[in-house]
Amino acid sequence: MEIAIIGGTGLSELSGFSLEESHNIDTPYGGTSSPILAGHLKQTPVCFLARHGNPHRIPPHRINYRANIWALKSLGIKKIVAVNAVGGIAAHMGPAHINIPNQIVDYTYRRNGSFCDDESAMPMHIDFTYPFDECIRNILIAKAEKLQLDFSSDGVYACSEGPRLETAAEINRFEKDGCDLVGMTAMPEAALAREKEITYASICLVVNKAAGKSDSVITMKEIEQALKAGMRSVHALLSEVASDL
Length: 245
Ligand code: HPA
Fold this sequence. Notes:
CATH superfamily: Nucleoside phosphorylase domain
Shape: globular
CATH class: Alpha Beta
Radius of gyration: 17 Å
Bound molecules: hypoxanthine
Strand content: 25-35%
Structural class: alpha/beta
Number of domains: 1
Largest sheet: 11 strands, mixed
CATH topology: Rossmann fold
Helix content: 10-25%
CATH architecture: 3-Layer(aba) Sandwich
C-alpha cells in the first residue's frame, strides 16, 4: 500500500472506500489520531487517516502529527494526499472553493515539528523549498479541471497555530506576506512527511472568508454549510485521482 489520504475537518470518513483492515499502531511518539484504515478506493489500494479523530475531537494544535506520519511510513506509504479546511484570504477564495496550494508560510510556534529531536541524531536539514509535490499537484489539478470544479491551482497556505481563528490584523499581515489562504493543519504535517521521504500534496477546501475579509463574524454554521457544499467535490476529486497517483 503506497497511498494515504489524510482527512481533515469534515472528512472523517471516505466515501466509496471499502475497508479491509484497521491498524492501531503504537509509535515512539504515542498513538495516531485514529486507527489507520486500509482498503480500496474504487480499485486502488489506499489508507485513510482521520487527522482530528473519528468522530472529530482533536484540535489542530493537539494533533500528534509525528505519530501520524511515523505510522504511515511504517505501513510503507510513499504518497500522501491531505485534505485541509481553510479560510480564504485572496478575493477569489470564497466558501466551497478548492485550492491546490504550492507554498506554505508557517506561523505555528508550539508544535513538535521534526523527527530530529535529540542530540544523538544528525540534524536533518531537509530541503523544503517546494513543500508540496509537483507530480501529485499536477494530477490533482488535471482531475479538478476534468471535473470542472470551482478551483484554483496555486496558493500560499498560511499555517496559524489556532485553535482560535485569527484577528483581522493577523490576516492583513498574512496577506502582506503573500498568503492566499489560512489553515491550522498543513504544518508540521508536510515537513514531517518530507523528513520521512513521503511525497505530499494538499486539497484545500475554503470554508469561510478569513477574518476581516467579509462583513460578518465567522460562525460555525457558515463553516458547516461550506463543508457540506464543498466536500462533495473533494470526495469526487479523491476518487478520480487515486488510480493515477
Ligand atoms: N483560519 C484558520 N484556519 C481555518 C479557517 C480560518 O479562517 N477556516 C478553516 N480553518
